[in-house]
Predict the 3D structure of the following.
Amino acid sequence: MTEVAKIETTLKDWETDQEVRWCPGCGDYAILKAVQRTLPQLGSDPKNTVFISGIGCSSRFPYYMETYGFHTIHGRAPAFATGVKLANPDLDVWLVTGDGDGLSIGGNHMMHVLRRNVNMQIMLFNNEIYGLTKGQYSPTSREHTRTPTSPLGSVDHPANPCAFALGSGARFVARGFDVSKNLPDVLKAAHAHQGAAFIEIFQNCIVYNKDVFDDFAAPKGAEDRQLWLEHGQPMLFGNAKKGDMKGLKLVPETFSFEVVDVVDGDWEAAGVCVHDAKNRMLAHMLIELEFGPYPMPLGVIYDDPKPTYESAVIAERAKAVEGKDNNLARLLAKGQTWTVSGTAQDPV
Amino acid sequence: MTKAFCFMATQNADPITHNASPDSVVVRFAGDSGDGMQLTGGQFTLSTALAGNDLATFPDFPAEIRAPQGTLFGVSAFQINFGSREISTAGDAPDVLVAMNPAALKVNLSSLKPGGLIIADSGEFTKRNLEKAKYESNPLEDGSLAQWDLLAFDISALTIEAVKDFGLGNKDALRSKNMWTLGLALWMFDRDRQPLIDWLNAKFKTKPDIAAANVAALNAGHAYGETAELSGPLKQLHVAPVESEPGLYRTITGAEAVSLGLVAGAQLAGLPMFFGGYPITPASSILHHLTRLKEFGITTFQAEDEIAAICAAIGASYAGQLGVTSSSGPGIALKGEAMGLAVMTEMPLVIVNSQRGGPSTGLPTKTEQSDLYQAVYGRNGDAPIPVVAASSPGDVFECAIEACRIAVEYMTPVILLTDGYIANAAEPWKVPDVDSFTPFPAKFLTENNNPDGKVLPYKRGAKGARPWIKPGTPGLMHRIGGIEKAEGTGNIDYSPENHQLMTDARKAKIDGITVPDQGVTLGEEGGKLAVVGWGSTFGPIRRAVDNCRKKGLDVSHIHFRHIWPLPANSGELLRKYDKVLVPEMNTGQFKTVLRDQLLVDAQPYTKTSGQPFKIAELEAAIELALAE
């Protein structure tokens, strides 16, 4: 991938003339604005930017971005995006999907785009519900979710998107939520990562699953329930101003975390763990933390790049074509040939 | 050595082996799926081509990779018809059957011509193998093969003897059995051994001992023929070279030809090619071929499934390459929704279907033409896609170019139909002059096409095609997708008038594709009977019609390449015949299309056994149709 010159744009440059058709109050509006605010900060060029989506509420996203955009079919956006990146690795691809699109019908493609490590940003809007089909439970809906297809409450165990991503081989896993002021920073980190960057964005479906994330996303008491991770920084949460600071301490004997009080800001004394975004085992532990006893880990959970799929394809091609030409006539006459007189000729 | 050689001559009138220079011969090699019969057949084909004969082949193998040894279902066969005249099919019935074990004999005997020659490896006719093949007594000894000529000798022992100097174990030594057999066949048809010796030395370059052992086995088989001729009635046969157009020739299989045709098509369009595939029989070999041709600007992508394969190809087309995907029936079914998206977003794309027996998993390694409805009608919504069908291994080359042309010129997905028979069969192919094809360079929009505002991605050109706009082009940012598009802007538009207009526009574009007028393949333009075919039935229909015409019957052959849209003169042409007979390896699918599109009384003649039509079957059907 060649370095693309950064250009100056404003938020307005990224807005289309199309009327946004999400329900009033939908979390998607906040995410759209966060993205439109982030792209000028990244110096992105609209002509080299492509938004690719599947099907669902979130997948209408490309229509509202003044870039190249492809609204594809249900669950398959990662496959389209892979073709786009292989055909033109210089394009900056953002993939937009949801919990149904990306983890149910398209779970297979999500797994493979992550393990191949195709360089793109994957934003999975997780609202724990099927919105566009009017409120059926999704693969991330919590147990006992009552919906038109689960009137007695759903009995399926939900999937954990970040655990799925990490398990599939993702080299970047992050979390944010729609109205969070930190979301642009998470998007920027994802963009800086060379490879498939997976971002789970909790998104409030105001109509079918209203405020389902309030337990950690509601402004009131948020400090106690959100653990914003930063590489090289201690895992702290709680209200420092009120002197109520907590941290996560690693307990090696049980291979688990313990919530500890931090007195006078002395986190070292309390034994609080320092976040290492390159530590894959740590990432697994953070992703599996049970919310309630522990806060919700947010921000960049894991970020350890390795070579991208397209760079490997390009390198393989360069090696394979060495010393070869693309002469079609020679290709057609390859192998053992003969003339009508029936005499064998040497291979061409 | 055990019983080395026995020969039983029959009283049959004029069996092929009693004529020293026949104008064509059909040979079938049959053995266990581990015996290397496909390889033997392939090499015999090459030697036949180098001898200047015309030829057609029919590899027929089980779906199991290594079926249990000696079983009836594990038999793999390779049939070749070659001659000093034009050869259009692999032959109805073999003149010579090479049976490497009892199961191979049992499975293939019924198709052998009366008076034909059986060459059998008596060393494999053990009690155990006879039981596995469900023989109660040894057919080589019980007189049950009296109506054929029989040559039975212990090929296994002779092979071990021939390679004993190379220090191989029995198991490894027996692997050369097929080369021994090939050596005998080469002697029998007076062929030059050198090209095969060269091939063996090249193939086993890193294992010179194995190469030498195989060459020794080949030579021993050849020498055995000479000796047998001296001592007995086995005769060497001479099949003269065929007269054909001057030029450079090679053998080609359908899978090779489709790959080369796609490469040529991409070059004529001036585009890099992106090929998305997923392993499936019998389509995988196209992916195998193309992945070795990276220097031709080809990117191959082995996707996680059939759906991802087509979606990635569409993504690549969107980004400005020629997207191609390939599969067989079940895989094509999975791609259906994505094809609809390519129709809706009007994206160039070539979809190759190497048809096999269906429905569901069906007959993975056998041939059929039963995906025609799927190609023509098989998508949700009104989603017209042009369909081109290849009639022979060599013909696929041109059809692949034609599919690329239509895709690029009309901004549309195109389906190229081939089948398992074409994919695996080989024929001599006159290497075409690359300059004889007219280029159809792809054009990308680089300037805004709308003086009054933003770019119009759905503003149609002369052929009804929308412009192709590569992401990365300054100032032409736009959004496309599967939701109904507004004419011009391509914005979401569900309005009744717009959907009517766009549905009509998509249909008109495909209906308006320029395809050459349909000609008469063999015979007269008009008469009592037209035998109408498409796809791989070309060979048997041509031969059957030719035979019937020589008998004085008023019958002509018309073979379609363009299935959708049909050539404009199709109805007019078919109405010049009293009757129209449509032989197909399905239950009558093209017949339905002809009736629907042309209102002609096309009559079906169908077969779904997984085997190609026999010439005799078609001749009988023609005679019956003319007699009615």
Notes: Chain A touches chain B through 61 residues (CB under 8 Å).
